[in-house]
Design a protein that fits this description.
2 copies of one chain form a homodimer. Chain A has 339 residues and is of the alpha+beta class. Helices cover 32% and strands 24% of the residues of chain A. The first copy, chain A, has a single domain, classed as Phosphoribosyl-aminoimidazole Synthetase, Chain A, domain 2. Chain A is globular, with a radius of gyration of 19 Å. Chains A and B meet through helix 1, strand 1, strand 2, strand 5 and helix 3 of A and helix 1, strand 1, strand 2, strand 5 and helix 3 of B.
């Protein structure tokens, strides 16, 4: 279960990776903060390895996923994506047509996000020692020039967009419907015909993020990937030592995704996206930010889904039927290898 | 054979990766130059995925290899290594003791090279879909402050250390004995008792590289990894459109490595190191550079192994018995998965 995001993965990372590495210099955003990117000398730096199965799915492929994921990790921390690296590890005999299709998708997604691949590495390993391919994309970004203006409306200590910036009263915006990517992967993998129209939402979000920063008042952002918004909001609650209230009725979800998740006994709050972002925004600015991102196709379904409170320190959901449900951190993702 | 470095891998990279990606902005050192790092906005950026088998070997392990390889790729391009990313993909059930040992080695090698891990990613995939683990380390560096002084002695167009800087008359320095790493891996993998004392030379080389740049006159550097110095020198000849003459008698090689390679029918020129560097240096400065790096343990066996010529455009070796042998680019590495 370690592999799927959620609390078991977090304990693996905290009790092994962070513990053994003991970083010893100080940085603007060090590894120990476990944010989506690190920052040193105003360079935003991030890495992700992609093992998604299948490699091609409704709405995207591993190449589009890799570029989008890396661009989004830079952008949510306050970086302007500048360049990516591409490392391919291929199983011997990997079809060259599939490779070309994935590389073409990488190229197109790079253009969409206005970044280039500037360094790479390619290795081929013997048959049977790897399931088809793994892609690593790392990325660098400069400090987003919109960040200083954005922070004029925020006085929270950090020059970057961090979970520790969150304060009671901040509103939570979600840029669109939840669980699309995870359900699309599940559908492609299992061949469930009743979810066959669900497409992944995988896409670069730097344009939408810039639109929000132009308005200002954003204190923190993160894309809900592995573990869905349940994992994301619990991370924010932990790091800010505050509670978060969300309203079930305000959480955008496609009808077919809702039905499919219900049929499969999965909680859509725990299923990841790859083209959505959560933002914590100061209350005075939240409506203006919402209006701005709704003008874009990738933000047209954006909603305020909740707010931060100092009355408790967990994530609580006001349900449609009138109760309150505590949303825990998922132990593992119900849909592994979604990214 | 694609996987092992050499000409088949180069055709895979040129005819698929570079062709499909079509980078569209211009950079100081773009992907298309196929150097060890790319450079944009004076940020040196590199990536490598490590699939070495076995994970632990005489002289090192996959963690030390990853940190050293990435640090060295930054340093040879003219960067001062600043920070690394660490992405781990683990097979389900991977022993946590081994993970801790590898992470500890990463930490120690980072301190040796004076860099930190500042961002990371960890994924676990189901058993059978990966042979134990893959590590990706990417790295960023700032422009090495010694580079401007070094280039006072060189007038070759680029502000960076590139193969295209090479001119006829330049001398080739090799910092120590060839083939150590590849033979150590082969020994660990096959259990050949007659090579059991051969240790990998894997180490960060940024200190040695700084020492050379302090003297000045270095036009180009590269570490001979996959494909050995045969691959490296052919790459330099191709990119500079010049020939290179090397002298067999001057190439440092340990006796036990020579005997083992001969016994196994392998050409040590094609077997990789992970702790050596080749430098092309202007003739006026070469002796001073050599003296400087010989003062360090990691450069004590450094030699001038050859020179650049405009009389032909291949790599030619004057053999000990008195003839001349053309050194071709290896089709594939005789020892796959050495890094």
């Amino acid at each position: 279960m370690h592999g799927a995001g959620g609390s078991l993965m977090h304990s693996l990372i905290k009790e092994h990776v962070i513990k053994m590495l003991r970083p010893y210099k100080s940085f603007d955003v060090p590894l120990t903060l476990l944010e989506d990117s690190g920052v040193c000398n105003d360079i935003v730096f991030t890495t992700d390895s992609y093992t998604v199965k299948p490699l091609f799915f409704n709405g995207g492929d591993i190449g589009r996923l890799a570029v989008s994921g890396t661009v989004n990790d830079i952008a949510v921390t306050g970086g302007k994506p500048l360049a990516l690296s591409l490392s391919l590890v291929l199983e011997e005999g990997f079809p060259l047509d599939d490779l070309d299709r994935i590389l073409t998708s990488i190229n197109l997604t790079c253009r969409e996000a206005d970044v280039d691949i500037i360094t790479g590495d390619t290795k081929v390993v013997e048959r049977g020692s790897l399931d088809k391919m793994i892609i690593n994309t790392s990325g660098i970004g400069t400090r987003n020039p919109l960040l200083d203006r954005n922070l004029e409306y925020v006085n929270r200590g950090s020059r970057w967009l961090l979970a520790s910036n969150i304060r009671a009263g901040d509103k939570i915006i979600l840029s669109g419907s939840i669980a699309d990517h995870g359900m699309a992967i599940l559908s492609a993998r299992e061949g469930y015909s009743f979810v066959s129209n669900i497409a992944s939402d995988v896409r670069p979000l730097n344009r939408l993020i810039d639109r929000a920063l132009e308005v200002g008042g954003v204190v923190c952002m993160k894309d809900p990937t592995r573990g869905g918004i349940a994992d994301l909001l619990n991370e924010w609650a932990e790091k800010s030592h505050l509670g978060i209230t969300i309203y079930e009725e305000s959480i955008p979800i496609r009808d077919d995704v809702k039905v499919a998740a219900s049929f499969l006994g999965l909680d859509p709050l725990e299923i990841g996206n790859e083209g959505k972002v959560c933002m914590a925004v100061v209350p005075d600015m939240v409506d203006e930010v919402l209006d701005a991102i709704r003008e874009l196709d990738e933000g047209k379904d954006a909603c305020i889904i909740g707010e931060v409170t100092d009355e408790f320190d967990v994530v609580a959901m006001k349900t449609i039927v009138g109760g309150t449900r505590i949303i825990g951190r998922p132990a593992g993702d119900p849909v592994p290898r979604i990214c």
